[in-house]
Amino acid sequence: MATISPVAHPRRVPKPPTVPAHTQVQKTHGVQSNQHFQPLPKATGAYPYRMQLGDVLVADAMSAIQNAGKLVLHVAGDTGGVKNPQPQQTVADQMVQDFVAGGDVPAFFYHLGDVVYFYGQSSEYYPQFYEPYSHYTAPIMGIPGNHDGDPLDAAVEPSLTAFAGNFCADHPHLTKGAQEIQRTAMTQPNVYWTLLAPFLTIIGMYTNVPEGGSVDTDQAAWLEAELAAAPADGALVVAMHHPPYSADAHHGGSAYMGGILDTATTASGRTPHAVFSGHVHNYQRFTRRVNGRDVPYIVAGAGGYWHLHQMAVDASGGRLQVPWAIPGSDASLEQYEDQHHGYLRITATPTTLSGEYVVVAGHLNVGAPPQTVDTFAIDLAKGSVASTMPAKAATPAKAATPAGKRSPQAKTKAKAKAKAKGGA
């Protein structure tokens, strides 16, 4: 009988949540045999794949943005509520409240990828996209993530078929998957594309399926060209699903994607004002010094998928304290939130790009009000970043337990006590 060498076929097991942060923050991801680079669908628009916000919003809405001198938008990723829809719905409901709360109304929602878990299927667009945002009254656009592009059976439904059908349609129309929801398909020109809006340009990449991301030479050249051609006025943001920096214990940051961006930045002579990513299911804000400017690298991947990713630990095995200077790096971690789902509210003006991260109640603090746990403001001319939040990882206060009821923690302890008494 033939034997299989354990050396030729090494075993793999997940890493513990106590992995050191400095080994995770920007690493080289190994090849995984079950994650392959997938071919891209044909673009529906012409190169260089640009879309004006005015092609989506009505003239009155565009005039209101110009007259106000600001553009407000939502940003989040990794939203699909496949196993537990409640976190996604809670975040979506709070985003809807931003339209009725009396403040600045968001013009649209920019999605950072992983709209539909686990394989981007057309059949999942209603429960994971159209229904949760049935009361969201603004357009939704964005970039795909690895789960959007990883096909269950490429022979039946090729990679990104559903994403392209719902986000890259050649004209706005109601898709079959939308069912009764009155949201027409978005008309982005490609799965990687550039949004041109008042006071803001977003260059959105598609980083494909493999862990750590992967882009072909065509997209890398396109990124360089779009950085070079981006308007000089207003904020310039690069969006990509796989984050160049992340100190979480699950995925970690991608040295590869950081290198792709650095190469394009050097070749184009343009440094983005900020980098937005998802993939990791929490919130993190890094600051990196690039070409004399402070550039925030932000992870906002806690938009609804139920499983949040814990942060890795510091050198002593404890919880990371911020600000945390990354050893041997020109970047530092300024703030994070890994206990609750949430979203970014971004405001762009002619001189600043600012944001606040809003978290919502979870299963341990049901009924708690939303809370802003981080704010930042980028001075576009100076290339400096300011924040008014305290230098610590904020956690929302837990809602009080109603009289006569036990908290989930108390119930768990009571069950454990009863189990111990019964000897089970």
Could you walk me through the main structural features you see in this protein, from its secondary elements to its overall organization?
With 424 residues, the protein is α/β, with parallel strands linked by helices. It has one domain (21-422): Purple Acid Phosphatase, chain A, domain 2 (4-Layer Sandwich), CATH 3.60.21.10. The chain contains 8 helices and 16 strands. It has helices at residues 59-68, 86-97, 125-130, 146-149, 161-167, 217-229, 255-268, 408-422; strands at residues 50-52, 71-76, 108-111, 140-142, 193-197, 200-204, 235-240, 274-277, 283-290, 293-300, 324-325, 331-337, 342-348, 352-359, 371-379, 384-386. The strands form 2 sheets. A 9-stranded mixed beta sheet has the order 1-5-6-7-8-10-9-12-11, with helices on one face. Helix 6 packs across helix 7 (255-268). The longest helix has 15 residues, at 408-422. The relative contact order is 0.15.
Question: How are the SSEs ordered, and which strands pair?
Answer:
Blueprint lengths: L49 E3 L6 H10 L2 E6 L9 H12 L10 E4 L13 H6 L9 E3 L3 H4 L11 H7 L25 E5 L2 E5 L12 H13 L5 E6 L14 H14 L5 E4 L5 E8 L2 E8 L23 E2 L5 E7 L4 E7 L3 E8 L11 E9 L4 E3 L21 H15 L2
Parallel strand pairs: 1-5, 2-3, 3-4, 6-7, 7-8, 8-10
Antiparallel strand pairs: 2-13, 5-6, 9-10, 9-12, 11-12, 13-14, 14-15, 15-16
Helix pairs in contact: 6-7
